[in-house]
Specification:
- By secondary structure, this protein is of the alpha/beta class.
- The protein contains 14 helices and 15 strands.
- The strands form three sheets. A ten-stranded mixed sheet has the order 10-6-5-4-3-2-1-11-12-13.
- β1, α1 and β2 form a beta-alpha-beta unit.
- The longest helix is centred in the C-terminal third of the chain and has 23 residues.
- It is globular and about 80 Å long.
- The N and C termini lie far apart (55 Å).
- The C terminus is likely disordered.
């Protein structure tokens, strides 16, 4: 096996696309069509052992090896399957520490699951789209029933068993209109780390029964953006509104993935999230039968790299096919992106979303371009301040005092003499801060 040239991430799908929910916006349910005639979707033990062995060997120079389990819904396989996972990891890990993360809709989480997750220190990603009405808009079960109560029950069990969890929220056409309601809800249920995932899907106008209807950007078939996809401008409003709340109250207490990654970019570091790097290709997807694909969002026949039972995973990651896939993200940027002032933070975002016609006539402009321009330009002064704090070994959370001082100055400048004083003293402005020198400007 080739010595690993660098770390990579694999999203393992041990139950394939099989799920106990029927979320309207799910892009993965229809991947069943890639494996016609399959009745048993559970990853076979030989495939599981091969994956764990190869993944650990490919990261032999890393002190920590991370595994990510998703689906479909991985908890359908039951606790015994993941007890086998832990056993195999111990067998092959040697001196290396192994970390596990599992993404779940929460429906099957019970006391047994929580005892296992707690004992083996699994990080749980809990999928929840906001308060009940917003969550249930698209996240329905097979009988088109509400799932909110079951997810909240899972959250309560995780908390009771002290299982570390974060939340994954799909930002869609419905909840994008309620950024503060979504963010405050997630904060209130104890999510200390929040992932917002914008859903953008294109569906073909006509398809045969055995073809995928949700298509990739380069698909030649005519396709339309689905009704549940996030609004291309509204997503920017969503992010900036949440950011304005976060930067005033929650820096250092609540971690929002997009904000953390932005700070990396403003600090001159490469983005830890693949969609904001200049190239990609280091985040792959493994199907239940051992098939390895270029990316979770590119599980299509043309992006199948091979099978881990016949080809070494590291060799497939380093293959010309995968290298070309990753470099195409940079090489196919439209001309208008090359000179964009926020390119350093965006890099065209995910290739999956790049299908809009650009000024040079190509169809490689990101559907969310307007949103990212709005968001990154809006946060620029705050990110500059936080990056400077980091350079001087001071906490970025100092930005909250900086913003508060600016807010007070603005309020003072606009306050009438008989208005309540913006400082909160309860006195009139003219008899409080209006009766002395103005506040200093921001430091």
């Amino acid at each position: 096996m080739t010595i690993a040239s660098g770390p990579f991430h694999v999203m393992a799908k041990p139950s394939g696309p099989i799920c106990n929910l029927d979320c309207h916006y799910c892009f993965y349910l229809e991947k069943e069509k890639l494996y016609p005639g399959t009745s048993d979707w559970a990853m076979k033990d030989a495939v599981l052992e091969t994956f764990i062995q190869q993944h650990i060997e490919a990261h032999q120079h890393q002190s920590v090896v991370s595994f990510a389990w998703q689906g479909g819904e991985p908890t359908l396989l039951g606790v015994p399957f993941f007890e086998r996972v832990v056993s195999l990891q111990k067998q092959y890990a040697g001196e290396r520490r192994v970390e596990n993360a599992i993404q779940t809709n929460g429906i099957l989480i019970d006391e047994d699951w929580c005892r296992f997750l707690s004992e083996h220190r699994f990080l749980v990603g809990l999928s929840i789209d906001g308060p009940e009405a917003l969550h249930d808009r698209y996240r329905r079960d097979k009988g088109d029933r509400s799932t909110f109560a079951a997810v909240m029950r899972a959250r309560d069990l995780l908390v009771a068993h002290k299982v570390a969890f974060n939340t994954l929220t799909v930002v869609n056409r419905a909840n994008v209109e309620y950024p503060l309601e979504v963010y405050r809800f997630l904060r209130e249920i104890g999510s200390g780390f929040i992932q917002f995932i914008p859903v953008v899907e294109r569906a073909t106008e006509a398809t045969s029964a055995d073809e995928l209807s949700l298509v990739e950007p380069d698909a030649e078939a005519r396709a339309r953006v689905t009704a549940w996809s996030v609004d291309p401008v509204g997503y920017g409003v969503f992010l900036t509104t949440v950011f304005d709340e976060w930067v005033r109250h929650d820096v250092g207490k609540v971690f929002v993935q997009q904000f953390d990654v932005a700070l990396e970019s403003w600090s001159g570091m490469p983005a830890s999230l693949c969609v904001f790097r200049d190239t990609c290709g280091g985040a792959l997807a493994l199907e239940h039968n051992g098939d390895l694909y270029s990316c979770d969002h590119f599980v299509y026949p043309q992006h199948r790299l091979g099978n881990i039972t016949t080809h070494a995973m590291r060799d497939m990651v380093d293959s010309p096919q995968q290298q070309a896939f990753g470099q195409a993200k940079r090489d196919r940027l439209p001309a208008e992106c090359l000179g964009c002032d926020v390119r350093f933070a965006c890099h065209g975002e995910c290739p999956k979303h790049r299908f809009v016609q650009s000024r040079d006539g190509s169809h490689d402009l990101n559907y969310l371009c307007a949103s990212y321009k709005q968001f990154f330009r809006h946060i620029d002064p705050h990110m500059r301040f936080m990056a400077n704090e980091l350079r001087h070994e001071r906490p970025p959370a100092n930005v909250m005092r900086w913003v508060a001082a600016g807010d007070r100055d603005l309020a003072m400048r606009s306050a009438g003499r008989n208005d309540p004083c913006p400082c909160g003293s309860g006195r009139k402005f003219k008899r409080c801060c209006g009766d002395g020198p103005p506040l200093s400007s921001r430091p």
